[in-house]
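Session log. Operator J.P. requested a structure for one protein chain; no other inputs attached. Running the standard single-chain path with token output.
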Amino acid sequence: MMFSIVLALAAAAPAAKLPPVQALPPPAAEEQAVLAPINQLFVALEAGDSTAVLRVVYPDGRVTAVGALRSGNGLRQESWSQFAARLKPGEGFRESISDPAIEIDGDIAMVWAPFVVRVDGKVGNCGVDHFDLVREAGAWKVMNISFSSRTTGCPAE
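Structure written below.
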């Protein structure tokens, strides 16, 4: 009897909408593997080492900048090869990210994180980095980066 009452109530009640499915976070070791080429990229950028940059990216991938530091329409795109060719050692450049959101599905990954760029120790600009990565032969590489850029409202750290 109790079972039939529950069934009758369930049939009469409007269908409740379930919350969206939340993917399980990737294992911490896998997240660190995705972040490794990004961290290597930052070390290479700080050193102005174009060869080291090209080791952790796909040279034909894209660098897309949007925001305050861009002229004209606020958008600049170039390949990693073009970007790396402009690097110079000793420019005092240092970029750091915080609180990265990492999504991984098989051999693709996405990292979204706020960043701050310092030049000679002073905050130059900040924004959000969006990296997309591809794993090939067991190694993660950065395919593309898109980032916003602003000079106001940056952390003063």
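Operator note: Residues 27-149 form a domain with the Nuclear Transport Factor 2; Chain: A, fold (CATH 3.10.450.50).
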